[in-house]
Each structure stands twice: as C-alpha cells, then as structure tokens.
Amino acid sequence: MAIIYVYSEKNDTIERFERGLNESMPYVKGGTLAVRDFRGKSCSTTFWTTRCAMEAWGITAASFGKKVPVDTAFRRIWEQGFAPQSQHYAGVAFEAGNLFGRAKCRALRDHAERLDIWSYIEPEPAEADTVYLDRRYGSPACKDGYPTIKQGCKGVYVFVLQDALNVLGYGANVLDGKFASGTSKAVSHFQEENGLPATGIVNCETWEAITMKAVGRGQTPTVLCRCKEEDMEDREPTPRFSDMSAPEEVPALQEPEVIPYDDAPPFPSFVDIILDSSMEPRFLSPDEQDGERLYDLLLEPVEEKGSAE
C-alpha cells in the first residue's frame, strides 16, 4: 500500500490518498498510470505529486492512441539517480516511451508538444530512446531549479525541502508539504551552519547548498517515511504499464478509446484535447479555447476520495 500526497496549485491544498501498487494514480483519467509505474525503481511507498501533473499525463497518454510505458517518474532526493534539483524529486516529471523505439518516441514528443500542457519537454537528442516531460510550476530561483519558498508555502517543493533537511539531520520531524515555523527554523539552522544568511527563506543559494548535500546521500536515521529493508535491496526492474498484468482481485486496466489520428480535425494553436467524464477525448469548441476555461476543464472534479491534509 502506498501513501500519495497530491498538491493542487489552483486551490493550494494537499490531499492524501492510499492506493495499492496496481491501482491507478489519483486524478489520472483513463487509468493510464499505475502506482507502481509512478514509483518505478524508488524504494519509497510515500510519494508526492501535483494534480496538474497527473491530469496532464492522463490527457497525454489517453489521447496518444497507444499505451505509454514509463521508465522513471518519482524518486526521493536521497536516492541515487538525478541532478540535485531534478523535478523527479518533486514528482512532476516523467521519462516515458522507453519501450517504443526512436520513431514512436518522436511521435510521442510531437504529440505532447501539440497538446501544450507541459511546462517543459526536453528537446530531442541525437539518439532518443525516451521522452522527458515535466509539469513544474513557479519561477525558478536558480536556472532550471526549484522556486523560492518560505514560511506559508505549500506543495511538492516543500516536500523536497523537508525530505532533504530530514536526511541531513536538520529537519523538524515533519514531512507534510507545509512550510510552517518548524521548517523555517530548520532552514535557518542549516543556513547558519553553512555560512548563509539565516533568513529562513529558501532561495537559489540555499537550494543549491541543501540539494548538493542531500542528493544521493542514502537513507539516514533521521529520514521520515522510511523505506523498508526489503524494498531497499536491488530489485528486478519494475513491470511497466505496457506489460503489467493485474492480479485477479484487481480489475485489469482498460485501454482508453481514442480518436484515430486520420479522423481527427487539425490541432488548433492552443490545447484542443480534453477528457470528459466518460474518458473519451473530445475537441474544445472555439468558445472554450481560452486560458481560464481550459484550466477549469483540466481541473474538472474527478471522483477521488483523498483526505484533506
């Protein structure tokens, strides 16, 4: 069983979900992302992400026309694998299409660019065998880094900060995504001991110092929501969505119905595909193709039962 925290940028709220590894991630319409695929090779069973990231994935995968394999999504900062301020630690990044081959990866990248709902899509390298997408938010404090955060903030970047402070032994014994007074004091303590102005505000210099020390450090005694020993051992590669078979007691995930490319009207200049409650893609009418209406459609209520945090 996994615990998943989902932050809503629009409402500035955090919800808590409990899901089995073969169940769908919250707010992913069409069942195109199982919990185990989001977890990937992480040993953790506690994750965080955003509602926008989950809905963006659901729209992209369901409207692509093929099941999209996920190579990597979530990772905790003290686990090995990525740059110090990777969006994977925030739970808003995907490396996908790893089983596709170069041609299908190019098609997936082009499809994601046409949708225009991702914050960043990595340019195609010379030999592309995956597609990198992320739904980061906020203005970066450092180039390509995390946004400045301070007391009163909420969200996935606060989770990353608290996780990093905990692994380094500066934490306030909390991992809830809320930047309260205890987290502010922990930041000031770290700043004092590392030659930085003790403001309690996590700016570029503080992010760089904290993440450089925490990344890939491994699980220490002060980590919260710890990995179990059996999960920390080298595991076989996690089954991906494309070849995963669900146990008998869990309903098999169904491939979503999509509009064939040959029958679909041309893509307009703005996002034109959205999923309604029946999970079938539809095209936005002209009067719906404005930013506010699109954002509302992306965040239409989904029957999820997360508890407010």
Explained architecture:
By secondary structure, this protein is α+β, with helices and mostly antiparallel strands. Among the domains are: 2-74 and 93-134, no CATH class; 142-227, Orthogonal Bundle (Muramoyl-pentapeptide Carboxypeptidase, domain 1). The chain has eight helices and ten strands. Helix 4 crosses helix 6 (204-214). It starts with a strand and ends with a strand. Mean pLDDT is 82; it is low at 233-295.
Q: What can be said about this structure in brief?
A:
By secondary structure, the protein is an alpha+beta fold. The chain is 27% helix and 13% strand.
List the topology elements.
Layout: E1 2-8, E2 13-19, H1 35-39, E3 46-50, H2 51-64, E4 70-72, E5 93-96, H3 102-115, E6 120-121, E7 131-134, H4 156-168, H5 181-193, H6 204-214, H7 229-232, E8 273-275, E9 281-283, H8 291-298, E10 307-308
Parallel strand pairs: 1-3
Antiparallel strand pairs: 1-2, 2-10, 4-5, 5-7, 6-7, 8-9
Largest sheet: 4 strands, mixed
* Separation of the first and last Cα atoms: 19 Å
Share in β-strands: 5-15%
What is the C-alpha radius of gyration, as a whole number of Å? Answer: 19 Å
Counting H and I runs of at least 4 residues, what is the number of helices?
Answer: 8
Query: What is the overall pLDDT average?
Result: 82
Provide the structure class: alpha+beta
Which runs of at least 5 residues are low in confidence (pLDDT < 50)?
233-295
Helical proportion, percent range: 25-40%
Looking across the biggest beta sheet, what order are the strands in? 3-1-2-10
User: Would you count the extended β strands for me?
Assistant: 10
- What is the ordering of alpha helices and beta strands? EEHEHEEHEEHHHHEEHE
